[in-house]
Design goal:
Blueprint: E1 2-10, E2 14-17, H1 18-25, E3 35-38, H2 45-60, E4 69-73, H3 85-91, E5 99-103, H4 109-123, E6 127-134, H5 143-147, E7 151-158, E8 163-175, H6 194-210, E9 220-223, H7 230-233, H8 235-238, H9 242-248, H10 251-254, H11 261-271, E10 276-283, E11 285-295, E12 308-311, E13 316-317, H12 320-327, H13 344-349, H14 351-356, E14 358-362, E15 368-369, E16 385-389, E17 393-402, H15 409-418, E18 421-429, H16 431-440, H17 448-451, H18 454-459, E19 468-474, E20 488-499, E21 502-511
Length: 514
């Protein structure tokens, strides 16, 4: 069929425990969930998908230009009507001619995307990227919300590779009302009829596994996890043991990941070195997909694992009040007044800078400018610019903290959710400079004067690989106190703000290695 050649997975840094819910509500309705991941105010399914996708490409050592088929899956995409694969493709620098598909409307969407990728590879595609990301939500006092976590996974697939997908099957049966979200509603809900829900889950799971050509004998089972108990109740129907389910389970620490539930568990099992994995999804309605992944011993990597880059650990606990604020349920509301207005067409023109850090080299003096428009910062010439993509790494030159009430109006809503944030000037490097820092570790000794002008650097005989350009940026993924002058940073893509109902995405910075 096809094979997985690279794996990426991501979960937000925030966590809320079952005890925090019990303190707030006097009870906790998500059986088997000890804590769950919570997206920060500037994260959504698209930004989490970007995080997983970049990790998968890194693990597979695949250039984005090699991807000719892309899928993005989420039961809760940030927009109800917009093909987000265009934005995601631009964020990870895919070719504009790559085929793109979006999958939504079900917690089964992640495996539906994987299924479609297999079909594409059997047809005429050569390299596919499948991305699943989700952050379910329910009513605050409902079990769906108590279990609802956040996370993403991505897979690079080719026709041959270390982790072969050797079998697949699907099954469906009509079970309306088990889990649904009506048009115009934000919260997922269900009728909550326990026996009915359990029957829908076990019948479809069992039916999909029974449809496989060969009876699987997996070392690990990545199974849909609406909570921490239901997957184990389906063990008999799937013909597997509870230990195999526990081997790949992420629900206990991350919560219900919706359409990303099975993909994240599959990514974890591959990263942990399991040789035979059964992945079984379930979507309300109801339907299920079963996929068997086999890692042959002779094709395993020298370290015993399929290439994988994962970031699933979280170390920032939230109280229940902080959890509600991050979700935007409890905020102070937006301030009155204007603020900077950037039209959607203007924002679109700046996408190469905001997504891919595209600077420009002045054709008159060779200095770098960011953004590459208008007069050159060094020589003042109104000349053309040669596009130069920066490396996404650098050093903080100046930083301050924007406290409550200090943010411009367009950022106020996000600040009401996330609190204070860092605003910095950073020296972003070219690829050569970034590699020099990684090898020599001498970044702490470079002062801001050495970085202020690309032209002066060349005049003083500094190698072009050491060039930097100064850029303003917002901090994320850390407290403002964690950003200080001289510290190393890396870039990521997050929500910037929303105007006219359209969310603007762009780069932010975080401490290197986060």
């Amino acid at each position: 069929m096809a094979a997985i050649t690279g794996v990426g997975a991501y979960a937000p840094r925030f966590r809320i425990t079952s005890e925090a819910f019990e303190d707030a509500w006097g009870q906790f309705h998500a059986a088997g969930v000890t804590q769950k991941a919570v997206p920060s105010a500037d994260e959504d399914a698209l930004t989490m998908g970007y995080e997983a996708a970049t990790r998968a490409l890194e693990a597979a050592e695949t250039d984005p230009d090699e991807i000719d088929w892309l899928a993005f899956a989420s039961s809760r995409p940030p927009t109800a009507e917009e093909d987000l694969t265009a934005r995601l493709g631009a964020m990870v620098a895919l070719s504009e001619s790559a085929t793109r598909h979006a999958f939504t409307g079900s917690t089964r969407a992640g495996t539906r995307a994987l299924w479609a990728a297999l079909d594409a590879l059997e047809a005429d595609s050569t390299t596919a990227l499948v991305v699943a990301a989700d952050a379910p939500q329910g009513d605050p006092d409902d079990g769906i919300d108590h279990a609802a976590g956040a996370g993403s996974a991505a897979f690079v697939l080719e026709r041959e590779g270390p982790a072969e997908i050797v079998d697949r099957a699907e099954y469906s049966a009509p079970y309306p009302g088990t889990r649904f979200r009506n048009a115009g509603e934000d919260e997922t809900q269900g009728l909550g009829i326990t026996q009915y829900d359990r029957r829908a889950f076990t019948e479809t799971i069992g039916g999909a596994v029974a449809g496989l050509e060969d009876e699987p004998t997996p070392d690990a089972v990545a199974i849909q996890a609406p909570d921490g108990k239901l997957p184990y109740r389906a063990a008999g129907a799937a013909g597997v043991g509870t230990e195999e389910i526990r081997a790949a389970a992420t629900v206990h620490e991350l919560g219900d990941l919706g359409a990303a539930s099975v993909p994240v568990s599959l990514a974890t099992a591959l990263a942990d070195g399991y040789e035979s994995i059964l992945a079984v999804s379930h979507g309300s309605g109801a339907g299920a997909d079963a996929v068997v992944v086999s890692v042959a011993s002779e094709t395993r990597q020298s370290d015993g694992d399929v290439p994988a880059v994962t970031a699933l650990e979280g170390d920032d606990p939230l109280t229940y009040a902080e959890y509600l604020r991050q979700r935007g349920i409890v905020t102070t509301g937006p301030p009155s007044g204007g603020g900077a207005y950037v039209s959607v067409p203007s924002w679109r023109r700046s996408i190469p800078q905001r997504y891919r850090l595209e600077a420009g080299r002045c054709s008159e003096c060779d200095a770098l400018s960011f953004p590459p428009n208008g007069a050159c910062d060094d020589c003042g010439a109104l000349a053309d610019y040669e596009p130069i993509e920066l490396a996404g790494e650098g050093t903080i030159e100046a930083v301050t903290t924007i406290s409550q009430g200090g943010a411009p109006p367009e950022f106020a809503e996000q600040q009401a959710q996330s609190g204070d944030y860092a605003a910095a000037i950073v020296a972003l490097e070219t690829d050569g400079a970034s590699e020099t820092h990684r090898k020599d570790g001498d970044h702490a000794e470079r002062n801001s004067a050495d970085r202020s002008s690309g032209q002066r650097q060349r005049e003083e005989g500094v190698d072009s690989g050491d060039e930097t350009v100064s850029v303003p940026a917002m901090g994320t993924d850390a407290d403002p106190a964690d950003f200080s002058v001289g510290e190393r940073i890396e870039t990521t893509i997050r929500r910037i703000y929303t105007q006219e109902g359209v969310t603007r995405y762009g780069f932010k910075i975080r401490p290197a290695g986060e």
